[in-house]
Amino acid sequence: MAAELVRIHPRNPEPRKIEQVVAVLKQGGIIIYPTDTIYGIGCDLMNRKSIERLCQIMNIKPHKLDLSFICNDLSHISEFAKRIDTPVFKILKRALPGPYTFILESSSRVPKILDVNKKTVGIRIPDHNIPRMLVEQLQNPLITTSIKDDDTIKAYTTDPEEIYEDFKHQVDVVIDGGIGGNVPSTVVDCTTDPMTIIRQGLGDIEQYL
């Protein structure tokens, strides 16, 4: 059965359509959705079978699991990261929502995913209403990774209809929130002192340091 293509307004998401997608997530579904950087693929963090399926789709081995969590606000982050030092918290407060992934020490609330204990977790709060509203209604983070393209010229597919054609027999919902970006998030490791920029992507984190 082919995935459903759901068109949702990126700035003013229709609540009924958000509820429709959240219902799929609660049933263990895999979705593709827009962010403030590139399109992502993800599922409910608390659904082990969904995570197993996500890893199969993306050909990720459990011991190399390196996925990010999409949260909807700073209080949500505090549930899944250990005590965040004041200087780090101030940076997060200034930079988020935004195109950044922050690597933090994981808290005891982070589930033992696929028998792999992760000591750190990548946290995102995208500056995009669709994923934040999904997480708010789901009441769990999305565990997620980026949609990459096999093309050697373009690293990321930006057209949701093209993404749909590529993934319609592997996922349950593809959200069309308009043309996506092709630059990933900037990844910042907050477990080092000073912080380390692991990947320079969209956004200038230096302005917040």
UniProtKB/TrEMBL annotation:
All copies of domain YrdC-like, residue ranges: 15-203
Coiled coil: none
Superkingdom of origin organism: Bacteria
Molecular function GO labels: double-stranded RNA binding
InterPro entries the record matches: DHBP_synth_RibB-like_a/b_dom (IPR017945), Sua5-like_dom (IPR006070), SUA5_domain (IPR052532)
NCBIfam families: L-threonylcarbamoyladenylate synthase
Descriptive protein name: Threonylcarbamoyl-AMP synthase
Organism: Dawidia soli
